[in-house]
């Protein structure tokens, strides 16, 4: 079996790159500073040598052909000064301390020469005073200068590992802290994958940087996924519950009709019950398919001009008989308004809202349908004096299969308000509900009017 090789983590790679470029930058900077300092020191050394020799030339005096060396300073600013006659014989100082090099006298030329282990920078000047020619030579040691600058690279090389270690340690700590949200994201994802627990969230420190923002976005996504999964789980349970009852009724009625014990009239009643439950199942399935297509983006409504007031009046007229059977007074008042939309969907939306106002009313109650225009919106209001809903139930009434009145769970499919909310939304509108428990409800639909 091939062994899987794990690569370096991002933290290690970032730390290595950070350390490498930091050491490289420090090295380049140190080399530049070393080179610049060396050139500057060399220039200063040459200037000091030339100035010292020039001063010495101006101080040389001859009396009667003899050198007067009383005022001469043969060692100044680190420069040793020597005087020679025109034949190259040493005139002064009498004690040279062994500082002599075998180098030809050359006027106003800076050069280097060696004597044993020593290296010297030499500058010669020829001049005349009182008719007597002479040479002044200045010498400055380059050995000490070379040793001073020669120790700098060794010092840098000895300090460089420490700098690299500090850079690596600091870089690793910074990247480790910076990538902490990524680690938590991975741990949370692993925990969710192993335990299927979407309630877990990524901890962020609230600093607002990019990775913390990523953690916040992931938390928002997990919250939406959790809500979606819970909704789907609840939806599956509700569908099973809603279909189980009509299936059980159909099965029991069919078994009774085929048992041989049912008479002709009883068989007819059984088949009527089967037909009624089949129609209910068909209504549930067709509405679920429509909502599923809408959520999947495969449903495209037919948009055309619709005389919305005529549509509302037609629906109310068709439901007037059902309202009368329940002893509910249904009234409507509309204003001439034309909207752009899918006529079939709009009929279903209005029918669901008015049917709810009738179905969940009380005997002797009333339902009122109003259609008017406000700004650029058609506003449909459906009021009833029915059983109403509690405040905590208003946030759930547009969920599929939710019924605020469980005592009437056998009526309808539980999809009417969910369907109405989706139809309003697909037409660019909205629907709101207000209710007082025991007194009635008001549903308000706003649809944009396209001129």
Structure description:
By secondary structure, the chain is of the alpha+beta class. It is built from eight helices and 15 strands. The chain has helices spanning 10-59, 143-178, 180-195, 210-257, 264-296, 308-325, 343-359, 416-426; strands at 61-63, 66-68, 75-76, 79-84, 90-92, 109-115, 118-129, 132-141, 304-307, 329-334, 338-341, 366-374, 377-384, 430-436, 440-448. The strands form four sheets. Strands 3, 4, 5, 6, 7 and 8 form a six-stranded antiparallel β-sheet that branches. Strands 10-12-13-15-14 form a five-stranded mixed β-sheet, with helices on one face. The protein has a two-stranded antiparallel sheet with strand order 1-2. A hairpin with a 5-residue loop joins β4 (79-84) and β5. α1 (10-59) runs antiparallel to α2 (143-178), α4 (210-257) packs antiparallel against α5 (264-296) and α6 (308-325) runs parallel beside α7 (343-359). It is rod-shaped and about 160 Å long.
């Amino acid at each position: 079996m091939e062994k899987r090789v794990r690569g370096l983590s991002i933290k290690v790679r970032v730390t290595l790159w950070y350390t490498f470029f930091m050491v490289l930058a420090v090295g380049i900077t140190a080399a530049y500073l070393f080179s610049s300092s060396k050139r500057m020191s060399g220039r200063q050394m040459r200037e000091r040598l030339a100035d010292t020799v020039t001063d010495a030339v101006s101080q040389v005096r001859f009396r009667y052909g003899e050198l007067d060396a009383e005022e001469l300073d043969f060692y100044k600013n680190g420069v040793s000064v020597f005087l020679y006659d025109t034949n190259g014989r040493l005139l002064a100082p009498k004690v040279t301390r062994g500082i002599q090099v075998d180098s030809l006298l050359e006027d106003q030329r800076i050069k280097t020469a060696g004597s044993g282990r020593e290296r010297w920078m030499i500058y010669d000047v020829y001049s005349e005073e009182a008719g007597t020619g002479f040479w002044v030579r200045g010498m400055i040691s380059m050995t000490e200068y070379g040793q001073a600058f020669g120790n700098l690279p060794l010092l840098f090389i000895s300090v460089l590992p420490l700098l690299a270690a500090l850079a690596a340690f600091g870089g690793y700590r910074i990247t480790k802290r910076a990538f902490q949200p990524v680690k938590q994201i991975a741990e949370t994802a692993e925990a969710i994958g192993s335990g299927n627990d979407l309630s877990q969230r990524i901890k962020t420190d609230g600093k607002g940087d990019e990775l913390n923002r990523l953690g916040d976005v992931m938390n928002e996504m997990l919250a939406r996924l959790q809500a979606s999964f819970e909704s789907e789980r609840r939806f599956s349970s509700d569908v099973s519950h809603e279909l189980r009852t009509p299936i059980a009724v159909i099965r029991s009625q069919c078994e009774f009709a085929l048992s041989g014990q049912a008479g002709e009239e009883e068989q007819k009643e059984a088949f009527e019950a089967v037909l009624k439950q089949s129609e209910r199942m068909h209504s549930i399935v067709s509405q679920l398919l429509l909502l599923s297509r809408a959520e999947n983006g495969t449903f495209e409504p037919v948009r055309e001009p619709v005389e919305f007031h005529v549509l509302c009046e037609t629906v109310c007229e068709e439901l007037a008989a059902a309202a009368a059977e329940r002893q509910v007074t249904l009234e409507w008042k509309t204003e001439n308004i034309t909207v752009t939309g899918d006529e079939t969907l709009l009929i279903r939306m209005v029918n669901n809202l008015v049917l709810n106002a009738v179905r969940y009313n009380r005997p002797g109650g009333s339902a009122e349908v109003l259609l008017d225009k406000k700004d650029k919106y058609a506003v449909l209001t459906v009021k009833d004096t029915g059983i109403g809903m509690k405040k905590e139930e208003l946030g759930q009434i547009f969920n599929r299969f939710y019924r605020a009145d469980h005592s009437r769970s056998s009526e309808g499919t539980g999809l009417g308000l969910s369907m109405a909310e989706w139809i309003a939304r697909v037409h660019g509108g909205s629907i709101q509900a207000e209710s007082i428990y025991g007194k009635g409800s008001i549903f308000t639909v706003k649809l944009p009017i396209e001129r």
